[in-house]
Structures are given as structure tokens and as C-alpha cells.
Design brief:
Keywords: Transferase. This protein is of the alpha/beta class and about 325 residues long. The protein has helices spanning about 1-5, 25-35, 50-60, 80-85, 95-105, 135-145, 165-180, 195-210, 225-230, 245-255, 265-275, 285-295, 310-325, and strands spanning about 40-45, 70-75, 90-95, 115, 150-155, 185-190, 215, 235, 260, 280. It has two domains: about 1-120 and about 310-325, Glycogen Phosphorylase B (Rossmann fold, 3-Layer(aba) Sandwich), CATH 3.40.50.2000; about 135-295, Rossmann fold, CATH 3.40.50. Helices cover about 40% and strands about 15% of the residues. Helix 2 (about 25-35) packs across helix 3 and helix 7 crosses helix 12 (about 285-295).
Length: about 325
């Protein structure tokens, strides 16, 4: 997005500040000079290693003239001193109620009054309801995956790792087929080399259950919007609570029903937009029943008015203005 930023009159500076190395602490003084020279108003920290560099640079400045400090907690990081830097902002943004609760539970010294709940957002223009892929995309999709022709497509997006719920998904496909639903399951996500053994376990499980023609592992996709738009149902089966889970509001914004476990950010999104899709964590029978209902009946999907890009931007700038003008 740098070309767009520059074309619109912005400035962009690069630095290896995100590299996970203690040598990055040498950048503290360089960053401090930058903040002073450019008269920076807001310093917004969003990742732990850069946050430590930024926080230490900021802490050493004159409190009367230094920038206002904002941090965003994007996930339920391991609880330790390294992660604690994400709670040191004058305002701390939590990307879901789940993350707000995580902060309050694990960092009790954080003043609740400085936490601001700002959900991650989906651009409704990028994910419009009723979106249809291009003819070219559809032709290639049908060429690459002819086994999907005439099938009811259910999709589980997410990288290949045990906690993302692929084993539950395989059970779901098995039971739906036994119940006479002509489904084909898609697992869309790549496997880190460290997860090669789990990927092999998935393949063996699919083969053992004679599902080779009923489940496709399609790897990493840069066209997940198109994949979801041709799906009849999208699943979110993470065993651990997602901090937010962007896939859920993206699919729902497209008008595709989502069934997911009722915890974390995914549970929050489903409660607001598609509560019929909520399933108790680990309840396989409930998962099968709910998925079958969503495939055989039409349930309304509420319009996305909460989890939008515009809402996220407006609330973030409100935090900036609040810090710049404490009387607001």
C-alpha cells in the first residue's frame, strides 16, 4: 500500500524494527530522534518487538512533549514480561471483548478505563453480499476441482495445525454424508514445515475413512473470498478461542452462513450476525445438527454494521483525538 500512501501525500519510512532480535534495541535512540525531528503526535504500537523499541524510546522522552502512546492487543499472547509491553499504552485497544477480558485477567495492574474495545473490520465494498467471482475464475476453479461439480460445498479456512479443527471437520463431513447430504469438504490453508506430520495425519485420516473424493486440501489461497463465495457453508472450528477471527465476518458479509464454536471473537461475531450458527465448543453432535440445518434451511444473516473497516477506522481516530484533546 506504500505507492497509494505516497500518491495521496503521505510519507513512509522503513526500518528493521520488527525483526525479532535483541540487536533491535539499538534502534531505540534512532527512533527517539525520529519522533523528535518529525514532531510525531501519536505513536501506535501493534507488535511486541517493535513495541519494546517504541516504548523504551518513548519512555525516555520529555513527558510534556513526547507523542501520545497507543497499543493494540491483537491476540492472547503468552503471559509474561515480554508480552506486557502491549498493555503499556496510554490507551490500549482490544480487538474483541475476549481480548479485553484477557488483558484484565492477566494484567490486573492495567487500568480498565484506558482500554478501548475496537473490533477488527471488514470492508463491505471488498466483501459485498451476493458477490460472484469472475467467469475466468469460475472456469479455472471448475477445471482444477471437477470433483466439486454438483456437490454442496462446505469450507474450513485456516492454516494446517491441530488447534484449527481440521479433525472435527473430517468428522463433520463423514456424518453429513452418512445423513444423505451430498457434501464436499474443502480445507483451505497451508501447513508450516513444522506441521508436516499433522498434515500427513490428516491425509491418512481422510484415506482411512474413504473420503479422498469427498475432501480436498487446496493449500494456501490468495483468492479465499472467491472460494468462500462459492461455498454453501463456512466453518470456524478452532479449539482455542480466536482473538477475533476475520474469516467469520468476511464470509457473513458475503452472505455465506458460518457455523462455529461459541468462544472467542468468532462467538462474538456470530452472536451479532448469525446466532443460529453458534455451537458449543467440542460438541460434535451439535456441530453436525447445526451444519445440516444451515445447509437445508435458509436463515437470515444480519447486516454487518459492527465489524466494518469504517467503524474500526472511526473508533481508532477517536482514540487519537481523545488523547490529543483530553477534554473531549
Amino acid at each position: 500500500m506504500v505507492p497509494q500512501l505516497l500518491a495521496e501525500g503521505g510519507e513512509h519510512f522503513t526500518s528493521p524494527i520488527g525483526k525479532k532480535s535483541l540487536f533491535n534495541l539499538r534502534l531505540i535512540w534512532q527512533l527517539r530522534r525520529f519522533l523528535v525531528e518529525h514532531k510525531v503526535d501519536i505513536l501506535h504500537l501493534r507488535s511486541r518487538m517493535p513495541a519494546w523499541v517504541g516504548y523504551l524510546a518513548w519512555r525516555g522522552m520529555d513527558p510534556a512533549t513526547r507523542p501520545k502512546l497507543v497499543t493494540t492487543v491483537h491476540g492472547a499472547y503468552s503471559v509474561n514480561a515480554y508480552s506486557s509491553v502491549m498493555t503499556k499504552g496510554e490507551r490500549v485497544i482490544a480487538v474483541s471483548s475476549t481480548i479485553r477480558d484477557y488483558i484484565l485477567k492477566n494484567y490486573p495492574k492495567v487500568n480498565p478505563d484506558k482500554i478501548r474495545l475496537i473490533y477488527r473490520g471488514v470492508d463491505p465494498q471488498e466483501f459485498p453480499r451476493g458477490y460472484k467471482p469472475s467467469k475466468e475464475w469460475l472456469a479455472k476453479w471448475q477445471h482444477d476441482y471437477p470433483q466439486l461439480s454438483g456437490k454442496i460445498i462446505i469450507t474450513l479456512p485456516g492454516r494446517i495445525t491441530r488447534w484449527k479443527g481440521q479433525l472435527d471437520f473430517i468428522q463433520l463431513v463423514t456424518r453429513l454424508k452418512q445423513n444423505g447430504i451430498n457434501v464436499h469438504g474443502i480445507i483451505a490453508g497451508e501447513a508450516d514445515p513444522k506441521k508436516a506430520s499433522f498434515l500427513q495425519e490428516l491425509k491418512e485420516k481422510i484415506s482411512t475413512l474413504n473420503l479422498t473424493n469427498d475432501i480436498s486440501l487446496i493449500g494456501h489461497r490468495s483468492d479465499l473470498k472467491e472460494v468462500m463465495s462459492v461455498s454453501d457453508l463456512v466453518l470456524s472450528l478452532s479449539q482455542d478461542p480466536e482473538a477475533f477471527g476475520r474469516i467469520t465476518p468476511e464470509a457473513l458479509s458475503l452472505g455465506i452462513p458460518v457455523v462455529g464454536y461459541n468462544h472467542g471473537g468468532v462467538g462474538e461475531v456470530l452472536k451479532a450476525m448469525f446466532p443460529v450458527g453458534l455451537v458449543k465448543l467440542g460438541d460434535i453432535n451439535g456441530l453436525i445438527t447445526t451444519a445440516q440445518q444451515c445447509l437445508t434451511q435458509l436463515y437470515p444473516i444480519n447486516e454487518n454494521t459492527i465489524f466494518t473497516l469504517g467503524e474500526m477506522q472511526d473508533k481508532t481516530f477517536s482514540v487519537y483525538r481523545e488523547l490529543q484533546n483530553p477534554r473531549l
